[in-house]
Amino acid sequence: MRMTVEIEENDLDELTKVTGIKKNSPAVAFAVRDFVNRKRAKDFGKMLREGKFDYPATNDEIEAAGT
User: Fold this and answer.
1) DSSP state of 29
2) Residue 30: burial class (beta carbons within 10 Å; 0-12, 13-18, 19+)
């Protein structure tokens, strides 16, 4: 999707330096994806800590299934 966004030049320069992505558009797309993924992971971790998931398997069973 194309859109127009105003971003301060110094912020965009910093973004390209931190991401290592030279072109502006791909750097911004990367930053958006990274932000969304981190937010989802944070929310998932919070739900785990709050006990929102009830897994009937033991830790040993889960580890065994991963191999």
Assistant:
1) H
2) middle
The dihedrals phi and psi of 21, each to the nearest 5 degrees, come to -100, 120
pTM score of the predicted model: 0.71
CA angle 23, 31, 10 (to 5 degrees): 60
Q: 13-22 b/e with 16+ CB inside 10 Å = b?
A: eebbeeeebe
pLDDT 10s digit of each residue in the chain, 67 long?
A: 999 999 999 999 999 999 999 999 999 999 999 999 999 999 998 988 888 877 777 888 888 888 6
- Say if residues 62 and 55 touch (Cβ distance below 8 Å): yes
